[in-house]
Amino acid sequence: MDDRLLNILRQVAPGTPLxxxxxxxxxxxxxALIVVGDSERVREIAEGGFVVNADFSPARLYxxxxxxxxxxxxxxxxxxxxxxxxxxxxxxxxxxxxxxxHRTAERVAKQTGTLVISISQRRGVITVYKGSxxxxxxxxxxxxxxxxxxxxxxxxxxxxxxxxxxxxxxLEFEDAATLLEVTKAIQRTExxxxxxxxxxxxxxxxxSESRLIVMQVEExxxxxxxxxxxxxxxxxxxxxxxxxxxxxVIGSWPAEDILDLSLIARALGYSGGTGILDQSVSxxxxxxxxxxxxxxxxxxxxxxxTFGNFNRILQASVEELDNVEGIGEARARLIKEGLKxxxxxxxxxxxx
Length: 352
Fold this sequence. Notes:
- By secondary structure, the protein is an alpha+beta fold.
- The chain has helices at residues 3-11, 17-27, 40-44, 58-64, 100-112, 140-173, 179-206, 211-220, 224-235, 243-251, 255-258, 261-267, 286-289, 297-307, 310-315, 318-322, 329-350, and strands at 32-36, 46-47, 50-55, 70-73, 79-87, 115-119, 126-130, 133-136.
- α6 runs parallel beside α8 and α6 (140-173) packs across α17.
- The longest helix is centred in the middle third of the chain and has 34 residues, at 140-173.
């Protein structure tokens, strides 16, 4: 599911002219070999055929596929360069394919680094190759079913994440948070983001058929990453790394490491043995203050810089808040009222 494969899927996704042309060929039970790119490397291994040099259209691709040779398109797939071309890649390049068309496609992709599409006449399957990447396009109904299942999983993960954030926030107000609750919140954020990445893969493969999935996902993941970054910003003691850096490091871990909360605590810069998660910690206050309406980030920065942690901010009087740069009496009262209102909402959410 790397970026290269996602880019490939976007090029051949439903709704694109290229995919429409591929579907025409598939329905006619014909085979085809299509190279998306006319670089010098491609021209060096192309023999014979004839120059087309015409704008791309699904109908033209379909008609040209009736001939035996390969079709060469420009890299953006907007023009057809040549057709009925014979491709002669280096036979020493290893290939796991058995059919001649697929073996040629794999070798051309590896030799030139170009996107190559092979349509099997016998099996009715579209396979895409680029470099060492190979992917067989699946039936849209299968992909849609998997995407819907992933969205259901995302809903469950999002609910668990929301509860973890509520629990952490209540303990922050009570000045009773430990690294256990902090690392759980970050762990839930990361696992939720991983489900989102999987769904993005399905969205790319579904193309124009993914509209409803996209709407559902956008609603479910609103502010997930941002809130996770604010948790890290509240608790990280690693000065040389930004919250984005730390979340990226955690995101690169294998799934089994994400389950180890002590590893997340160490990523935040904390040390200790088996009892590391029992350490009491106090947030700086970025995440909770960001929930107060009309409170700009520079003002939040000034508040955190002045008071040092959230407990002191919570205990501060209107007069003390008024003394912070960028806060007048009206805004100081807004902060106090906002924190009180948020606390009442949390209590209702906690016992719902």
